[in-house]
Amino acid sequence: MSADDETRDLLILGGGLVGMTLALAAAKKGLSSHIVDRADPAELTAEGFDDRATAISTASWHLFTNIGIAEGLEEFACDISSIAVTDQNRPGRLDFQPEPHEGTLGRMFPNRRLRLALFEAAAAEPLVNWVAKAEVTKRERSEFGVAAGLADGRKLKGRLMVAAEGRGSPTREDAGITIAKWDYHHRAIIAGLTHEKPHDNVAWEIFYPAGPFALLPMQDDADGTHRSSLVWTVSEEDGKGVMKLGERAFLAEVEKRMGGVLGKVLSVGQRSSWPLGFHHTAKITDERLALVGDAAHGIHPIAGQGLNLGLRDVGALVEVLADGASIGLDPGDPQLLKRYENWRGLDSFMVALATDGLTRLFGVPGAAASAVRRLGMSAVQRTPALKTFFMDEARGVSGDLPELLRA
């Protein structure tokens, strides 16, 4: 019998960073999966395909360590040792810097490296049947199991369907799960930069009325060229114009907003632009169905928590299913799904609300609003307990953490 013909514990629809991590984490607990994705892995890992980079929190790094991919990723990591937050580079800066014994606030990785590590691990894992370049044309769920019909006529069967396709999840739509959403009418412009001064492992979050302007530290090139990843939020109407700017004009606009923190900007990589919105589902489970990652919650990238929130979903779902398996429960058992719903529903909603609130707070224009924000930031700067709270949130180590996300 081929792997495609087996009925596996999980049928994961969507093989991005969250879906692939889920398949590998489940395998570590002895749970088998089919993972189906439309994309061609060769294209996703091609040099130059994607200039995006992702901040991996401390808790997410523990997850990568526990599933065995951290060692291969370590050489590509750039530590975030502190975060500097300013309102338009005016006085009243807020600095988050953990004590030396607390470690970093996270690590930056090129998305391409994360994909390569996950794909290599999945290809070598017998409990993961990875079906790439496949179109799902039919989804079936019943009290007896789940199945996905593919465009080429194949049919994959499982016990629990997991929607991991991202924001526009067709599986979520197919299940009729209601969703609250709004558009920020903003776009994130993302590009890699090289610059004159070293970043000293500091991540900068500079707030402007149009949205945050973030500079995230990346590893220096082999020849010592200093590099950072830019995430610049602009209004929807300005987005097209910013994308069309010539390189010199784009560099001039970026330099103006940086306020000299990294010196002269030397070059910019390939630019990409992404619409920004908020969405949250009314529930994250249904009959033999669980939602993970952006299929369940889409948030503003203001705090860099999108992927990390999805990886918390992964850790919780795997722990719930493994606990169930140890007493003989089927992965689609309603009690297990209820436990997952209760565990993740509120936490992800609170993070989503907090990021939405920050986006709105820093988007209020005018000198008075700026003065109030800077007053609040200086109060946090002088309150160690508050700073520790925010740093623990950034590192993902607060709340009821799944076992796989602990050291």
From TrEMBL:
MF terms from GO for this chain are: FAD binding; monooxygenase activity; oxidoreductase activity, acting on paired donors, with incorporation or reduction of molecular oxygen
- What Gene3D superfamilies does the record point to? FAD/NAD(P)-binding domain (3.50.50.60)
Query: Which first-to-last residue range defines the signal peptide?
Result: none
The GO annotation for biological process reads:
ubiquinone biosynthetic process
The coenzyme or cofactor needed here is:
FAD
Q: Which PROSITE patterns match?
A: UBIH
Q: What keyword terms does UniProt attach to this protein?
A: FAD, Flavoprotein, Monooxygenase, Oxidoreductase, Ubiquinone
Q: Which Pfam families match?
A: FAD_binding_3
Named in its record, the pathway it takes part in is: Cofactor biosynthesis; ubiquinone biosynthesis
Q: Organism's domain of life?
A: Bacteria
The record's InterPro entries line, in alphabetical order, gives: FAD-bd (IPR002938), FAD/NAD-bd_sf (IPR036188), Ubi_Hdrlase_CS (IPR018168), UbiH/COQ6 (IPR010971), UbiH/COQ6_monooxygenase (IPR051205)
What region holds the FAD-binding domain? 9-342
Q: What family, per the record?
A: Belongs to the UbiH/COQ6 family.
Q: What NCBIfam families does UniProt report for this protein, alphabetically?
A: Ubi-OHases
Q: What is this protein called?
A: Ubiquinone biosynthesis protein UbiH
Species for this entry? Erythrobacter litoralis
